[in-house]
Amino acid sequence: MVDTNDPEIDENDYEDEYEDEDEKEKPKPNWNDWTSWVNFIKALIFYFIVTIFLGVLGSNFIYLTTRGSDLDIIFPTYDKFYTAKKIGVPKSSPANIDGCNEVSSGTGNIIFDDNFPYNMIDETTDVKQMKTWPLGKRFGSWFGKISRGVFKNNRAYFKSYLDNFPPNTLLGNHTFIIYVVAPFTLLMSFFAAGLSGFCTAIGTAFSADTKLTVYGGFLLFSWAVIFLMTAILVLRFVATLVFLPMSQNWKEVSNIMACNVTALVVLFGFFACGCAYDTLDSDIASIMGIIYLALVAITLFKKKSKEIF
User: Fold this and answer.
1) How far is CA 188 from the centre of its chain?
2) φ and ψ at 108, to 5 degrees?
3) CA dist., res. 275 & res. 110, Å (int)
4) Domain residue spans of the chain
5) Separation between Cα atoms, residue 168 and residue 177, nearest integer Å
6) Phi and psi at residue 76, in whole multiples of 5°?
């Protein structure tokens, strides 16, 4: 132990001794911690997949918001679609792509032989006449009307929702859609589509055939149909957001994604910095964070410079 009262000991030597000990205690960035680097790379791969998924999801959503009148083809709400036994359904042609803007080039036609389940609907409202129907016909018409009510109404709701994000507006900004709107819509779809589908199914079931719905409630088959229609609606809604636009025209969706590659790179960089702080040495993570912020600042400066000049 050092005696500071000893006149032979210089106070400066005493301070230097403790300053050297403090410097030795300071941890240095550990660049050779391979376990941390392996965990970091695993996290990067996971978040790379997440980034690609968000890119596809956002591009699909943008594709739907840029369809204009063609959206009525993707989500038909016109009466003829739900009343005809056989129907010719217009199919949109490939769009004319000008940079990152898509413009519809018109429609063609494709024929559905059977418009199931809507071809089972009988519009008769005479209760006495309905009593003479075979049970199979009555149940089929009832099921078809429930299907029409659920899908027609909820397609109209979704088209109204998409109208809130028109192209070349603040809410229609591609980066905002990819970062916020598309993920939020997917997450809320399970609750919103489920609740809407369930309520619509109950309402249309009673309006289609009150007596059959009440009897079916006691025999449980009404509840089975209502829950089935709700589940199908939710699954189809999720499939629409995730798969439908890509399956219809992958070239347009991939073009939208390519036009927003900068936003996706910035998002992946954010995830990478988070991975660094979770798995790597704090000093190394801080260095990565500073580099990331510098690159984002440079990217924003270049973008704004192009807009101004």
Assistant:
1) 9
2) -120, -155
3) 49
4) 53-259
5) 12
6) -65, 130
Q: Is 39 left (phi over 0), alpha (psi -120 to 50) or beta?
A: alpha
- N residues, the chain: 309
Question: Which residue type sits at 71?
Answer: L
- Listed in sequence order, the residues at least 6 apart from 193 whose beta carbon sits closer than 8 Å to its beta carbon are 154, 233, 234, 237
CA-angle at 289, arms to 288 and 293, nearest 5°: 120
For residues 269 and 24, the answer to whether their CB atoms sit within 8 Å is no
pLDDT band at 29 (very low <50, low <70, confident <90, very high): low
Cα separations (Å) of 148 from 120, 175, 240, 262?
A: 11, 35, 18, 42
Q: In whole angstroms, what is the distance from residue 231 CA to residue 147 CA?
A: 12
What digits encode the pLDDT tens for the residues 215-273? 998 888 999 999 999 999 999 999 999 999 988 888 899 999 999 998 999 999 999 88
Amino acid letter, 42: K
Which residues are CB-contacts of 17 (< 8 A; sequence separation ≥ 6)? 2
- Give the pTM: 0.78
pLDDT above 70 for 93: no
Work out whether strand 101-103 and strand 107-112 pair parallel, antiparallel, or are unpaired.
Answer: unpaired
Give the residue from 12, 10, 14 showing the smallest Cα distance to 2. Answer: 14
Tell me the backbone φ, ψ of residue 56, rounded to 5 degrees.
-65, -45
Return d(Cα 48, Cα 36) in angstroms, integer. 18
Q: What is the DSSP letter of 123?
A: -
**Using only C-alpha atoms, what is the Rg of the chain?**
31
Provide the token pair at 204. Answer: 């249309």
What lies within 8 Å, CB to CB, of 7 at 6+ separation is none
- The token duo for 125 is 């409202």
pLDDT, tens digit, 9 for 90 and up, residues 109-164:
555 557 788 888 888 877 778 778 888 889 999 999 999 999 999 999 999 999 99
